[in-house]
Amino acid sequence: MHTVLLAISLLVVSVIGQRVEPFDKNITISNGNDVDLECVISGVADNQFLSWTRITETDGGSVTTDVIAFDEQLAYDGSDPDVPNSPARYSLIKTSTRYTLEIDDAKMEDEGKFECSISKTDQKQAVWLTVKTVPEIDPITGNFFAHENKTYELKCIASGSPKPSIVWSRPGDMLPSGEYLSHGSILELVNMSSSHRGVYQCAASNTEGSVKRTVEITMDHKPEVTVVKEVVLAWPGETASLTCLFEANPSASLTQWIKVDSGRTIK
Ligand SMILES: *[C@@H]1O[C@H](CO)[C@@H](O)[C@H](O)[C@H]1NC(C)=O
Ligand SMILES: *[C@@H]1O[C@H](CO)[C@@H](O)[C@H](O)[C@H]1NC(C)=O
Ligand SMILES: *[C@@H]1O[C@H](CO)[C@@H](O)[C@H](O)[C@H]1NC(C)=O
């Protein structure tokens, strides 16, 4: 009876050959969750070993391959600077049919392509991991002092998954372009004028949420004076008050009221 069973399983192995098959080819989870990348294995001989590799494509287009784990030992012991991920969060579980890479507390940097393969064969299968993350705004232009007629670029860079969309606006006002919104990381302010000073807001959003940051632009401008009431009526003997508002940067001080018909300086 045992002989027969053994014969059958040998037959199956020789028909199928060495195989790895990902349990799930595209996995999407939220930031902070744990995830298992599972590889279903069959027909692996004693002299072959299994590996999980991480395939990273840089912005420049070059591809790096990092072996994360092979067979029952983790290749990555925390000392390998080539593996960009935190080793403590990665672990490996192997059974006779599954070869599982467990990732704890997944982060956006874990996103990408992983490959399960059998050495000395062409057997390999890819798994794509997507870690959905609320956007985070990275270095953004800080508050600054602008000069008249100069051109400035306001930058807002955001990370997040899916890739966040970025929108510039000016709370309670139109952008100098005459639009209410400007899409994209960079907002260009051409020929700065005092009407362009104030608060600008960058918002980064994706399906997970949205975040906002502001930039305040201050600049020199000539003092602007406004009289609250141009005509003030008063009966003889009554107290009348004349109010003048003024705004300037650097700050100015109200120096004098002049009575025009007499040319007399009151104060
Ligand atoms: C999984 O996602 C990757 C990257 O988004 C894509 O290229 C690939 O075709 C997808 N594979 C499957 C099986 O859906
Ligand atoms: C800015 O440009 C205006 C118009 O060309 C000019 O009148 C003004 O003097 C310029 N200001 C500075 C600080 O260059
Ligand atoms: C900016 O100022 C320059 C010089 O005053 C002028 O030639 C140019 O047309 C202005 N550009 C815009 C977009 O207002």
Automatic annotation (TrEMBL):
Domain Ig-like: start-end pairs: 18-127, 135-218, 223-267
Pfam families: Ig_3 (PF13927), V-set (PF07686)
Transmembrane spans: none
Secretion signal, residue range per the UniProt entry: 1-17
The entry's keywords: Disulfide bond, Glycoprotein, Immunoglobulin domain, Membrane, Signal
InterPro entries linked: Cell_adhesion_signaling, Ig-like_dom, Ig-like_dom_sf, Ig-like_fold, Ig_sub, Ig_sub2, Ig_V-set
Main location: membrane
Domain of life per record: Eukaryota
Subcellular location: Membrane
Record membrane topology: Single-pass type I membrane protein
Gene3D superfamilies attached to this UniProt entry: Immunoglobulins (2.60.40.10)
Listed name of the protein: Neurotrimin-like
Organism the protein comes from: Saccoglossus kowalevskii
Lineage summary: Eukaryota, Metazoa, Hemichordata, Enteropneusta, Harrimaniidae
Encoding gene, per UniProt annotation: LOC100373705
